[in-house]
From TrEMBL:
GO terms for biological process: peptide catabolic process; proteolysis. GO terms for cellular component: cytoplasm; extracellular space; membrane. This is ERAP1-like C-terminal domain-containing protein. Residues 74-258 form the ERAP1-like C-terminal domain. It holds the Pfam family ERAP1_C. One of its GO terms (molecular function) is zinc ion binding. Belongs to the peptidase M1 family. It comes from the Eukaryota.
Length: 277
């Protein structure tokens, strides 16, 4: 196990069909790392690449667009699509793969798809293609978002417990919908934040508070940011303080973010000084 556990990265296996009449494919293996500089500076650590050419049975037929039934296979394929960021795959590959998401019913493939989507979002941010990309993602996400909805409340006001995988799937889809501009998701988040401010009662479902807080801070005025800031200081629950703190970074207001950065720097410095003393 030393080659797997004691060195960075993992193996990437590429299978290429040869354009010939001998029904052969070439399988190649190489060492994958995100940090390409490390590979250049230490080539001896990444020298297990090898190639093998094999013949396949002429009777085997590969059917394009056939359904892939295994959850683990769907998850693995979508996880591998993240390799597009490093240049291993064309960018259209993950876009084509996520086009089936409206039919996907399991959390793990959705989670893998969201990782690929957020990676592509970072890559395309501030480019002229970003709006097209966002629209495309929304078209894949919205059918599932409208089907799953938001966490349901019981008559007594508590939130109904659902299976873990179902809850995580709902969270994943909601996060994508709000992140990429679904208007219904935005209205729901703004409504919940507004209700919290006016009533001073937090009726936001606990498992989606991070999504709602971040969406509210990013869409609403600085009064909301200051409200979240006040709640961060008054909260005694560490888990809630963490969610509130992360939500404060969702603002696009440069002045607020600079003030926030100054507070964090001062707080860390003050904490370190107390620790030393």
């Amino acid at each position: 196990m030393d080659r797997w556990t004691l060195q960075m990265g993992y193996p990437v296996v590429t299978i290429s069909k040869n354009d010939s009449l001998d029904n052969s494919v070439t399988i190649s293996q190489e060492h994958f790392v995100y940090d390409t500089d490390a590979k250049i500076q230490n080539p001896e650590l990444f020298s297990f690449g090898q190639h093998e050419r094999i013949l396949i049975n002429p009777s085997i037929t590969i059917v394009k667009n056939s359904p892939i039934q295994s959850i683990s296979v769907r998850r693995s394929l979508l996880t591998d699509a993240v390799l597009t960021v490093t240049g291993y795959l064309p960018q259209n590959v993950p876009l084509q793969m996520i086009s089936y998401l409206s039919q996907e019913t399991e959390f793990l493939p959705w989670h893998a798809a969201s990782r690929a989507i957020y990676q592509l979002d970072k890559l395309l941010d501030r480019t002229e293609d970003h709006s097209l990309f966002s629209d495309y993602v929304l078209r894949q996400v919205e059918p599932k978002y409208h089907k799953l909805g938001w966490p349901a409340a019981s008559p007594d006001g508590s939130f109904m417990q659902v299976a873990y995988q179902a809850e995580e799937l709902q969270r994943e889809v909601m996060m994508l919908a709000c992140s990429f501009g679904n208007k219904h998701c935005h209205r729901q988040a703004v409504s919940l934040i507004s209700d919290w401010i006016s009533s001073n009662k937090n009726r936001i479902p606990p498992n989606v508070r991070d999504i709602v807080y971040c969406t509210g801070v990013s869409l609403m005025d600085e009064d909301v940011w200051e409200f979240i800031w006040m709640k961060f200081h008054s909260s005694t629950a560490i888990s809630e303080k963490k969610v509130l703190l992360e939500a404060l970074t969702c603002s696009d207001n440069i002045f607020l973010l600079n003030s926030f950065s100054f507070f964090l720097a001062w707080n860390l410095s003050h904490t370190y000084s107390k620790a030393v003393l």
